[in-house]
Design a protein that fits this description.
It is a single chain. By secondary structure, the chain is of the alpha/beta class. Helix content is 38%, strand content 25%. It contains six helices and nine strands. The strands form three sheets. The chain has a five-stranded parallel beta sheet, sandwiched between helices. Helix 5 packs parallel to helix 6.
């Protein structure tokens, strides 16, 4: 009975939804947006930038309407064209790779957003962070102007389909 009670509280889908909401809330809090009783004193608009694998992982979890309620003005592809929104916070969620790090560094150097929050969906190797720092330093003329970039490993490398059902989304495996 005790084990069954613990299992009924285990809801991987809801836990993952809450982790994504916390990721978005941390971007608001870091630039002065506060929530009081679930109502934000100052709305902090965010642009959610996703790579294709992160988009697959979020799609079954959160609707576009819910993203809007969480302050996401737009959600864009990391691999595609993006316009600058200097009043918004760029919230990136992507796999840790040198290619993604380079794209992020180019966006930061171009001052595409007013602030940045970089969330990698898996454990990030030091070489990826170093590659991003090199790309950023090369793209910026004045090394003193490198902005503060919060970077997190979020460990969201699975797709939560139901409360107790998830897939790792591995391709071509048996």
């Amino acid at each position: 009975d005790i084990l069954e009670g613990r299992m009924s509280k285990l809801d991987i889908r809801e836990s993952t939804r809450e982790a994504v909401k916390a990721l978005l809330a941390s971007a608001s809090e870091s630039v002065g947006g506060d929530e009081i009783g679930g109502v934000s004193e100052r709305v902090v608009w965010k642009v959610l930038v996703l790579d294709s694998s992160s988009r697959e992982r979020l799609a079954p979890l959160i609707s576009v309407n819910e993203l809007r309620r969480l302050g996401v003005a737009s959600h864009l592809s990391l691999e595609g064209e993006r316009e600058s929104l200097s009043d918004a916070v760029g919230v990136y969620l992507c796999r840790p790779s040198n290619e993604n790090a380079k794209i992020i560094a180019v966006d930061v150097a171009a001052q595409r957003y007013g602030a940045w929050h970089i969330n990698f969906s898996a454990r990030t190797e030091r070489v990826v962070l170093e590659a991003m720092a090199r790309e950023l330093a090369a793209a910026l003329d004045d090394q003193a102007s490198i902005p503060r970039l919060p970077v997190w490993d979020r460990h969201l490398e699975y797709i939560a389909l139901e409360p107790r059902l998830f897939t790792l989304g591995l391709k071509n495996t048996l």
